[in-house]
Amino acid sequence: MSIYIKAMQYVALACFLGGPLFWGGVWNVLDTPDMRPITRQVWRRVCWGTVLGAGAFLLAAYAEALRVASDVIHITDFGALWEFMTGTRYGHMTLGKSVLVPGVLASFFWVSAPRVRWVGTTLCGLALLLTISLTSHAAAKPGLAPLVGDIAHLAGAVVWSGCLLYFASLPWQAIRHHLTATQRVFWRLIERVSTIALVAVSVLLGSGAVLAFLHVYGLAALSETPYGRRLTQKIVLLVLALGVAGWQLLRLNPALKRLARAAMFEAATALLGRCAWLARVETSLVLGALCLAGVLTTLSPAERPAHVTPMTWERVLGDWRLQVTMLPSGEPGHVQFDIALTSMHGLDIPPAMPLIGHLRMREHDMGTRPREATGMAPGRYLLPGRLSMAGTWEVALTWHPAGAPLQTTFLEIEAPTGALDQDRSRRLEWAALSFTPLALFSGLLGGLLGGLAVVTLWASRRGRMPVWATPFGLTLLAGGAFLVLRVVLVDAYPTTYVNNPVSGTPAVLAQGRALFLEHCATCHGATGQGDGALAATLPTRPADLSAAHVDDHTDGDLFWWLTHGMPGTAMPGWEAQLAAPSRWTLIRYIRSLRQGKT
Predict the structure, then answer these.
(1) 311-421 in CATH: which number?
(2) What is the pLDDT of residues 519-541, one digit of tens each?
């Protein structure tokens, strides 16, 4: 039931806000005395659409509020219901919609001063979008960037779909009958709708890329989660709609202009019918995507999974058949391998035959050691393991049957998450732009391409560049956005991009060395190579702090691990024992181990 309510709410919102937008931003600007008969028909349709959209939107908003309230109270208890409406954010936003919807209607229909009318309508409309975003998935994210991105995404969707809805519902038959008198204004009308849609689509795609990064952990989520599957369907509909819009923009619109300038009105009228049909097709696709956007708000985002996805393997090595099942176990990142080993010739497997497993990451040495699997029955073993972080892992399984050669096989694991990833968060981090010279260059180049894209799109819309400059400008815009977003959209700890406030002076390094010998050398060794006195007794070898992998992490990463420890390892958090300046000092010394400054 909830998905239908949400779909209705989003479509009604486009119908409600699209009416004032189309009338004030498109039709009324181009209205002339020759267009008055058609204008009256358009005005009636805008009025009816706006009022019906407002009513349907409020109805859906209150229906959804009652559904949410029914999860915590009995909705027949009016006292508790009023407390829900006045004491919760969802209730506040619903009451806010009750005020803002009449505000939009009053500004649009009854304010006579044009400037006051459009300022009031716009502000009330934006505030209405805010009430929706404040109860969305983005509102649960830290910082303002997710909320601003959600508002921009919703605004782009409403502008595009609302404008298209009323453009598709124009009195096309009357327009074709009056084409001789209204042709010049009508071509400007098409260009204006195209320009507004172009801006809306650019905002929609840019904000959509940001929100997809924040809410979807990877490409696998698009097929493995309900949220990802609905998002994929939405993207497919939007791509089809963009294809229809591109065909109309690049082929039909120029052809219509040429026919009109050549006074071939009969051919232009026929082509205008195709234009109207394509507008309705595009509108249907966009409204379908809008319905799916409403459905997405009822599903849990496909964020970082709490556990690794179960996997199975089957191998045949000579006379042996191996079946392995990996299942999540306990804490995030912890897994257990259920191993079944059978002889192809039906031979009995000795209960004492050991099986050794070694789980390791390909890209990094995580200090893992081979361990013997626990024998549960002849040919049946259990092997626990821990995936520290997302990436490509492999487990090597080795056994040595009596009187037969040693057998070894390797199983590959693509881990979408790990024990160390659970404290990370996906977010927009502008500090990442200045963190490295390469990141800064990428950001500057992206900004330059974005500026060129804006100039190209403006010139193409003004007729100063050919029509093919529009897709070229969009390509530049996409490239510039990619170069910037690839840097500022991060999956990181809260302290990852915090600069070390302690300078690396000789005095600081000496102080850091003293701290290291006192607190760290027991496990990591005096030179940080992971060979301390307790290293051999630990289940996971301590990290070699003089190795190259240390350079793969920022000082902020190291600070987070020093503060909170590393889940699933013997590495504790030192927040209670060491003050923040001491932890930063210790990090300076750890860096010197790698850089040879000791």
Answers:
(1) 2.60.40.3340
(2) 999 999 988 888 888 888 887 88
